[in-house]
Amino acid sequence: MRRTLSIALILAACAFLISLIYADLPFTPVADNFSASDSNVSASSTILIADRVVRVTVADTPEERERGLSGWKGLAEDEGMLFIFNEDGRYAFWMKDMEFPIDILWISRDGAIVHIEEYVAPETYPASFAPRREARYVVELPAGFVERRGVRIGELVRL
């Protein structure tokens, strides 16, 4: 009886530890998983915003971040661009050579949305938009995404 109880307790402890290790975490940093410049990895991925899967093109080099969506004709409802930076900062974005309006989300290292700009139009160039707090990631989405999905500051994004 004592041996059975000991085995049961050990198994319960192991199950608890495994559940902690493999828990469904609210955020998995993309930068730790891959780099778009890595020749073994595609430059696209998916993220989860407001329970919506969004296909993103990854911009993680200075050249890709500078080019951004310039020259693109538009984005599908479930499409965006994910900018990955090497360190936290107050990264500013502008609408140079843009042909359509977008929503912009700044996201902290831990996956929380720290700033939102909605319906940023090409006509705003050369004005730039920056967050009030530091961010590690930025996502550009089709204009209206934030409003349609009820996205709010503080919400977690699964990257």
Indicate the topology.
Blueprint: H1 2-21, H2 30-33, E1 44-49, E2 52-59, H3 62-67, E3 79-89, E4 93-94, E5 102-107, E6 113-120, E7 128-129, E8 135-142, H4 145-149
Parallel strand pairs: 2-3
Antiparallel strand pairs: 1-2, 3-8, 4-7, 5-6, 5-8
CATH H level, superfamily name? Protein of unknown function DUF192
CATH architecture: Sandwich
Strand content: 25-35%
Write the element-wise H/E pattern from the N-terminal end onward. Answer: HHEEHEEEEEEH
Number of domains: 1
Tell me the overall shape.
globular
Poorly predicted parts: 11-42
Radius of gyration from the alpha-carbon trace, in angstroms: 20 Å
Overall average residue pLDDT: 82
* Structure classification: alpha+beta
The percent of residues in helical segments reads 10-25%
Spatially, the strands of the biggest sheet line up as 1-2-3-8-5-6
Summarize the structure.
This protein is an alpha+beta fold and 159 residues long. Helices cover 22% and strands 32% of the residues. It has a six-stranded mixed beta sheet with strand order 1-2-3-8-5-6. Strands 4-7 form a two-stranded antiparallel ribbon.
Word description of this protein:
The radius of gyration is 20 Å and the shape is globular. Strand 5 and strand 6 form a beta hairpin. About 20% of the residues have low confidence. The chain is of the alpha+beta class. It has 4 helices and 8 strands. It has a single domain, classed as Protein of unknown function DUF192 (Jelly Rolls). The longest helix has 20 residues. A 6-stranded mixed beta sheet has the order 1-2-3-8-5-6. Helices cover 22% and strands 32% of the residues.
